[in-house]
Amino acid sequence: MTFPELRERLQPRCDELIAQYPSKRSALMPIMHLFVDEQGYASKDAMRFCAELLDLTIADVEGVVSFYTLFFQRPIGKYMLQVCRNLSCTLNGAQEIMAHTRARLGVGHLETTEDGLFSYEEVECLAACDRAPCMQINLDFVYDLTPQKIDDMVAAMRAGTYPTAPLPQTERPSRTWIVRDDQEIARGERSAGGIGVADPDDAGGIGDPTGVIMLDRIVSDQARFAGRTRERTIVEPAQILEAIGE
Amino acid sequence: MPSFEPVLMKGIGEADLRDISVYRQRGGYRQLERAFKELTPAQMLDIAKASGLRGRGGAGFPTGTKWGFLPGSDAPRYLVCNCDEAEPGTFKDRMLLEETPHLVLEGILIGAYAIGCRHAFIYIRGEFKRGYEIMRAAVEQARAAGFVGRNLFGTGYDLEFTIHRGAGAYICGEETALLNSLEGKRGEPRLKPPFPATQGLYNMPTVVNNVETLAYLVPILERGAEWFASVGSEKSKGFKVVSVSGHVRKPGNYEVAMGTPVREIIDLAGGAREGRKIVAVQPGGGSSACIFEEHLDWGYDYESMQKAGSMLGSGAIVVFDDTTDFVAAAHSLVRFFAHESCGQCTPCREGGHWLELTLERLVHDRGVPGDVEILEKASHQMTGLNLCPLGDSIEPFLVSVVKRFPEQFEERVLRFDGAKRG
Ligand SMILES: Cc1cc2nc3c(=O)[nH]c(=O)nc-3n(C[C@H](O)[C@H](O)[C@H](O)COP(=O)(O)O)c2cc1C
Ligand code: SF4
Ligand code: FES
Question: What is the CATH number of the domain that holds B207?
Fold first, then answer.
């Protein structure tokens, strides 16, 4: 379905949403949810349409959309696996679950598998701490995780027998939905892992500014990453001490 | 065993309370009808005040007093129910939403009537997709039964209701950020004053109340303000749904009378794991400092938790036994706050990030001399300097465990020769 067709189909529901509020602008998030449910992500087309409907600038709409982590601004996988990394889950073995899931899928935090089937993210408390460690798959809760349970679920999703419906996927996802394109990561200026110092052995590590996690992966999967590497620099703790004059 | 019948949690797990006919068979919506037919808003305000009910969203502000701040004008006014629940360790509002949506709705409608609101809202966290769908169905049922919409109970009172779904941002639980989000803006907290009571949603007088706070209005109307006020301690009345998780055998939600000893609540949740000893407890969600063994016999209420150096907060208890790596625990929470900072205030945005980096070094046994001192110092530089309480919430847990278990942090610092310290 083309975007103009989709937009025509959803127009009446957008009008209903606008009518639910004393002020038109309040319908911004509900309208974006509506389009995300159809397109799988918050597309530029949807933002443009939303701006038109609500008499806002596109920049205004994008400013709001980019504030919220559930409005993915780039296409994602058919199954979005969001594992909780917060306190109660950490106390109950989330590290092991995250390590296992990363290894099983072959991706890191904020990344999508090459085949476009899975996206993976480590998220904050999901309000299911009584059933830790836990995760959401396409926003359905999965409780009391074990490595075996992860394996079974991943196998079922691959086989198309997993009970939670896949997300719509109107476009092929790239490596991550966080930066604009793979090139930025490849040049080593950005990484999918976002901020933070990371240790390659740290399963729950989120950051990768030095590219360590990625380089490890590149080393083990050279064909896939051919031509996209950069020099690896490891700062030894002793060097830090020297630098600060201790 | 609880020494009394559950109040809000009554019937959960026994019957499908999502079905309006089941809920009504058990007396549901009778208090709403009574409020509309027999009570004036002024009487409702008196009941709320007399009950001693305090907000269950975190700050513990007396509910009746909050309603009393609304100006007496004819301007439209709004009630917003806060179901953005994302405080680490807290999972009571999600349970109420998913298991007994009509009780939540009835509480909101009663609260709306009490403050003269004609359009009420519930803000549901984006991750709660199932809860959102359950609430949507509940509202449709209630509308068909004449509890939402025009001319309620033939009194001429119109009451609209809108469900608003968030999209992943803890900060939207802060009431002014929530109002911005509801207005279709970025979820950034507003500078106060003006407070929402005078200039809230769409610049109109507004009350924001937690799910549990509003739900308690139903039993309070049913059994009377005196009944509620007769339970608990001097400044903490009634009951509390407590989320217990971490190192216990039966994590879950337990409803208790205010003032129940912390140890008893932990025992309800199955107590410590086999052969383990509890060394610390976080009593009020991710924003609260830890309390320790010596406080376990203290009552779980606002005053005692404050006296113990912490707070009751959102009513979430996280239990730590003697296997806990407190560096990893602190890292997990600090990373959370750094991730959720909206970025408006420098101490919160930058301070959170630096604390996270420092803890990340320590977690990987790569701390540098001075790191442990920095953890404490940086927090002193962060408190009281922010627009909203999130910036001040980063340090309490961290500082409390650094002080109590300094050796766990120190031993992660490398010495010159690269060997682990002491
Ligand atoms: C960062 C932050 C997050 C908050 N999150 C929530 C929340 O998820 N749910 C909630 O009810 N209150 C939350 N609060 C408290 C609200 O600002 C507000 O005090 C509360 O909803 C008022 O309701 P009450 O009076 O019934 O407690 C949060 C506050 C802050 C500063
Ligand atoms: S304290 Fe933090 S979360 Fe609160 S307004 Fe400031 S930057 Fe935003
Ligand atoms: S800590 Fe994982 S769900 Fe709360």
Answer: 3.40.50.11540
- Using the predicted structure, report yes or no on whether residue B280 has a pLDDT greater than 90: yes
Shared domain for B355 and B276, answered yes or no, is no
Model confidence pLDDT, tens digit, residues A32-78: 999 999 999 999 999 999 999 999 999 999 999 999 999 999 999 99
A241: chain B residues, CB-CB within 8 Å: 368-369, 414, 416
pLDDT score, position A191: 44
What number of other Cβ atoms are within 10 A of residue B387's Cβ? 19
Stretch 164-183 of chain A: residues touching chain B, C-beta under 8 Å: none
Length of chain A equals 246
Q: Which atom of ligand 3 is nearest to the CA of B91?
A: 4
Average pLDDT of the segment spanning A119-132: 97
Give A-chain residues touching B87 at CB under 8 angstroms: 125
Burial class (CB in 10 A: 0-12, 13-18, 19+), A176: buried
Question: Which of A70, A130, A205 is nearest residue B251 as measured by Cβ atoms?
Answer: A130
Interface test with B, best of A95, A125, A244 (most B CBs within 10 A): A125
**A3-67 classified as CATH 3.90.1010:** no
Question: Hey, is the C-beta of A124 within 8 angstroms of any chain B C-beta?
Answer: yes
pTM (predicted TM-score): 0.91
- Range of the structural domain that residue B276 is part of: 239-321
Cβ–Cβ contact A163 with B under 8 A: no
- Cβ–ligand 3 distance for A129 under 6 Å, the answer yes
pLDDT of residue A207: 41
Q: Is residue B33 part of a domain?
A: yes
Say if residue B102 is in the same domain as residue B178. yes
Distance CA(B331)–CA(B328), nearest Å, equals 5
Q: What is the mean pLDDT of chain B?
A: 94
The structure tokens listed for B359 are 């803890």
Distance (Å, rounded) from C-alpha A212 to C-alpha A218? 10
Which numbered atom of ligand 1 lies nearest the CA of B85?
8
Q: Report CB contact under 8 Å: B130, A141.
A: yes
User: Of all atoms in ligand 2, which is nearest to the CA of residue B174?
Assistant: 4
Beta strand segments in B96-236, E: 119-124, 149-152, 157-165, 206-210
Beta bridge partners of B241: B255
Over residues B288-310, the pLDDT tens digits come to 999 999 999 999 999 999 999 99
Residues B110 and B27 in one domain: yes
- Residues B346, B404: one domain? yes
Interface test with B, best of A28, A37, A110, A130 (most B CBs within 10 A): A130
pLDDT over threshold 80, residue A225: no
Domain at B265, CATH number: 3.10.20.600
- Closest C-alpha to A109, from A85, A129, A145: A85
Distance from CA of B13 to the nearest CA of A (A): 16
Q: Which residues of A61-91 are buried (b: 16+ CB within 10 A; e: fewer)?
A: bbebbebbbbbbbbbbbbbbbbbbbbbbbbb
For B243, which of A90, A129, A244 is closest by C-beta distance?
A129
Question: Quick one: tokens of A232?
Answer: 């690896």
Instruction: Out of B321, B338, B356, pick the residue that ends a domain.
Output: B321
Q: Which one of B194, B229, B264 terminates a domain?
A: B229
Strands of the sheet with B78-83, listed across from one edge: B149-152, B157-165, B119-124, B78-83, B206-210
Overall average pLDDT of the B3-26 stretch: 93
8 A C-beta contact, residue B222 and residue B33: no
| B174 in contact with ligand 1, CB cutoff 6 A | yes
